[in-house]
Amino acid sequence: MRDGTATKNKINRVAMELFAEKGVTETTTKDIAAGAEIAEGTIYRHYKSKDELVKKLFLSLYEEQGNYLRDIAATEKNIKQKIADMIARFCQLFAEDKALFTFLLLTQHGQLREVPDDMVTPVVVLRDLITRGQNAGAVKQGDPDLMAAMVLGVVVQPAVFHVYGRLTQDYKSFTQDLTEAAWGVLGLN
Amino acid sequence: MRDGTATKNKINRVAMELFAEKGVTETTTKDIAAGAEIAEGTIYRHYKSKDELVKKLFLSLYEEQGNYLRDIAATEKNIKQKIADMIARFCQLFAEDKALFTFLLLTQHGQLREVPDDMVTPVVVLRDLITRGQNAGAVKQGDPDLMAAMVLGVVVQPAVFHVYGRLTQDYKSFTQDLTEAAWGVLGLN
Amino acid sequence: MRDGTATKNKINRVAMELFAEKGVTETTTKDIAAGAEIAEGTIYRHYKSKDELVKKLFLSLYEEQGNYLRDIAATEKNIKQKIADMIARFCQLFAEDKALFTFLLLTQHGQLREVPDDMVTPVVVLRDLITRGQNAGAVKQGDPDLMAAMVLGVVVQPAVFHVYGRLTQDYKSFTQDLTEAAWGVLGLN
Amino acid sequence: MRDGTATKNKINRVAMELFAEKGVTETTTKDIAAGAEIAEGTIYRHYKSKDELVKKLFLSLYEEQGNYLRDIAATEKNIKQKIADMIARFCQLFAEDKALFTFLLLTQHGQLREVPDDMVTPVVVLRDLITRGQNAGAVKQGDPDLMAAMVLGVVVQPAVFHVYGRLTQDYKSFTQDLTEAAWGVLGLN
DNA sequence: AATGAATGAGACTTCATTCAT
DNA sequence: CATGAATGAAGTCTCATTCAT
Hints:
DNA-binding; Tetracycline Repressor, domain 2; mainly alpha; Arc Repressor Mutant, subunit A; homotetramer; 0% strand
């Protein structure tokens, strides 16, 4: 291949999966190279260091999730429906790409502090949506950051249980229950 | 202290704090020894390996939390009150010892698989309480594991936000809100 | 330039300057390529290896200096004047192209052993001039290699000081002093 | 051994010899460890990095030479004799420990800039001695830094020739010639 | 029980060199 | 002649663990 895009994509994918599987520190550059079927040195044509790989991977994927949610928040629907759509989208994503979620889950500690203030993150989108819902009188009063945290917890913690085998059903089957719980937390019933 | 109990306690405390601060892999045995003001080799008088230290520390602290919750679950109160007590207890703990929570938070991945089947963990206690509540007709129907996960998420995720500075108030001030949200998830209003 | 002469010259010049600035091992082929505004692979159209580049560069420049001195030695002037001319020439060169001198200075160790026996080097020219001066009775007796070394030291060491900032005046202003010192060493007063 | 002094000394000696023989970059930590008959990691109990090893080694040995010369400069003798003593001392040192000289010679480039301003170096001692000699009317006028450089060149450049095999006699046999040349440069005859 | 110098496996990274385009 | 992505050997350094004291 003339440009290295395919190689870089392969590195990204393999790295994400290995990080999700074993954790970042436990995954060696050798592992990544083997998984991507390239030489170890090749990683360094695309990233200055393993650290940079982790950070860029995390930030780009984290922001990508933020963008998805932002698009949902930007629709014409009412807030109740937007919350439902967001949760449906999360369940869909998790069912399709568990490694992506697990990677974000494992990597957040230590990477969250690297998030630029102006980045569109899932958390920020959710918090802003809640704030606007409160202003419109649809969502009950309360610290919007706290409410965002609780909603996030309702949706994410079952996914963690799923990752660790405590929940085994197809995650999409939880969509309805999660949505109703989130509505309850926000007083949207 | 002719026996090494004091030394071991110091190791445990220092290790937990360093693990919470920087993560397990990023904390070296040298760091721990320095923090505990002992020689590196001394750690190996008390633990066979760093891995064993991490595992024993995690399991004992995790079980300790389970025991607290079990004691609450064993009281004569009604389930609604028990949930409230558990959350109050968690908020208290988190406010008093953030490092302990952070340690458990960071370490769960990779340690959760080591938990013996018969151990009394917070998750098991909570799940069993929910099941009994459902049998008694107090808690609404639904997968008890899923419900336990959602309740846990409601309580724990705000703590994560607190650790990363997105929430800054004294955690105990959230007790009421968290409790009501948990009740809502369980249909206990 | 259908042939690569211009490219090769650019490589030579850039390489010399970088070698002088940071040392040979500390200069990467990537640095050279970047400085010469070519691709890394292009270097290998002109040189078999980095080693060959260093060696050829050193030898050609070193010999070039030898040739200059040989031309001076071949004139009709008396030895005293020839020494003066050589030193003047060195001061001129150093003032004009400090990088060239620094490159030769840094590279000599490790390259000096590669010099072919029959090459016209500054050292050989100087030594031969001294020998002839001794035969003609103009230069005082003594090991000609030792005397060549001392004369060289008198002229070169101040240049080293200049490179490292211990001497800061225009080097040409030292010409007279260096010449007289050299004469003194050779007993030419 | 209870303390690591012997090990550190061994590292220092072996490193100096290898650096002198092949150059710093060409000497690997593996080489040093093998030469000192220790594990590679052991080097890092005594030095934070290879760089630090090189720098500390250079600075301590360089300063040591400065101290020797300072002691000579501090005697009651006249300046002519002091110069003679210094040169004799240098010839003695070089004859006894060629590796030390070669190490200092090879390493000066890149280390000279690290020398603290207040360090007693051979160059500073020599320059100060010359300045005092000029004030006393014993040494002829002229930039003392330039004169120090020339004297240094007279003494050191033959040593370089010796290292590269152009001079082969016992270096101590040059003592008289070098001394007279240095005197000549300083106008001390 | 405690020490701390030493170990050695292995991680990350660099860089001269190759080769398909 | 020129490119630049890829290689892989080799280097520096870290760190959990051991063992003589």
